[in-house]
Design goal:
- This protein is α/β, with parallel strands linked by helices.
- The chain folds into two domains: about 60 residues, no CATH class; about 140 residues, Lumazine/riboflavin synthase (Rossmann fold).
- The chain binds the ligand Nc1c(NC[C@H](O)[C@H](O)[C@H](O)CO)[nH]c(=O)[nH]c1=O and the ligand CC(=O)[C@@H](O)COP(=O)(O)O.
Length: about 220
């Protein structure tokens, strides 16, 4: 009986079972005893007939991989939501982000910066910007630095969940570029100091996600 299965891509590293991939690339020399005899057709088709154990996934030329580019940024529009609290730090993060956008040819006229009082306020503004339909991605920048009380936890957790919710609710990528640090030294080290600039890093993520959505997920 000729099996005419569409590309079924499975593989399992399970030592206990024996498998064989037929008519296609098999990443590992394996052999499979089949529960029935069959002759498999199809150029480049990779067939694995499962026998009892669960199989995992193997890529073949049939699998598409979608990713965003760091080039092809013409037409991408970005909103940056920046917390003024700890402005000494957030301004440095913003500078890093804007330098990155410039380096990757994002046009200045395609960037809007919106200032909010603190990181707690970022989420609601990010969601509004996402829902506006004007932007391909929203980059959120803040610096939450621990003080003497547990207020830090409330602000840091709220900022993170706010940005996450903004992206999920608006359908526009909202990137979390908010530092959450135990002290100001940690924050400054991540705003252009010895640990780099997390604003610049978040801008790269914003470009890739904007590109992914623009070119593949619309
Ligand atoms: N302590 C920090 C704050 N606190 C302010 C809050 O973000 C918020 O503005 C206030 O609770 C009113 O809603 N914000 C930061 O961004 N970083 C901090 O370290
Ligand atoms: C993250 C904060 O809210 C924190 O900086 C506030 O400082 P404190 O906990 O000493 O009131």
């Amino acid at each position: 009986m000729a099996l005419n299965l569409k590309t079924t891509i499975h593989h399992s590293p399970l030592a206990s079972s024996s498998r064989q991939f037929i008519n296609g690339f098999s990443p590992k020399p394996t052999s499979m005893s089949f529960s029935r005899s069959s002759s498999l057709k199809g150029f480049g088709t990779q067939i694995a007939i499962e026998r009892k154990e669960r199989l995992s996934f193997v890529q073949t030329e049939a699998v598409r991989h979608l990713t965003g580019f760091l080039t092809k940024n013409e037409g991408l529009r970005f909103a940056l939501v920046v917390a003024r609290f700890n402005e000494l730090v957030t301004k440095l993060l913003l500078e890093g982000a804007l330098e990155t956008f410039k380096k990757y040819s994002v046009k200045e006229e395609n960037i809007d910066v919106v200032w909010v009082p603190g990181s707690f306020e970022i989420g609601v503004v990010a969601q509004q910007l996402g829902k506006s339909g004007k932007y391909t991605a929203v980059l959120c920048i803040g610096a939450v630095v621990r003080g003497d009380t547990t207020h830090y936890d409330a602000v840091a957790n709220s900022a993170a969940s706010g940005v996450l919710s903004a992206g999920v609710n608006s359908g526009v990528p909202c990137i979390f570029g908010v530092l959450t640090c135990d002290n100001m030294d940690q924050a400054l080290n991540r705003a252009g100091g010895k640990s780099g600039n997390k604003g610049a890093e978040a801008a790269l993520t914003a470009i890739e996600m904007a590109s992914l959505f623009e070119h593949h997920l619309k």
